[in-house]
Amino acid sequence: MAKPNYAFEKRQRELAKKRKKEDKQASRKSSPGSDQGGYAQDNQAPDAAPVPGAPAPAAGEEPAA
Fold first, then answer.
1. 28-56 pLDDT, tens per residue?
2. 33: helix, coil or strand?
3. Tens digits of residue pLDDT in 17-28
4. Which of 2, 17, 37, 45 has the fewest CB atoms lying closer than 10 Å?
5. Among 37, 14, 35, 13, which Cα is nearest to 25's?
């Protein structure tokens, strides 16, 4: 009976793991809204949501940035 080639099996597992990781990164880059690695919610304009405790701008005034 032939002995198992553990080094070959390990290398195949490592290559499969590397391939899977690259596929995952490629799918993340191609998905919509992933401009900065999936943090699209954090990259909105500062005036997109009011800050709690901040005074509201008066009518006709631009909000301070």
1. 998 876 555 555 555 555 555 666 676 66
2. coil
3. 999 999 999 999
4. 2
5. 37
> What DSSP designation does 65 have?
-
What distance in Å separates the CA atoms of residue 10 and residue 3, rounded to the nearest whole number?
15
Q: How far apart are CA 47 and CA 31, in angstroms?
A: 26
pTM of the model: 0.44
Hey, CA dihedral for 43, 28, 15, 17, is it positive or negative? positive
Using only the alpha carbons of the chain, give its radius of gyration: 25
* Cα-based distances in Å from 25 to 1, 21, 30, 34, 46: 42, 6, 9, 11, 29
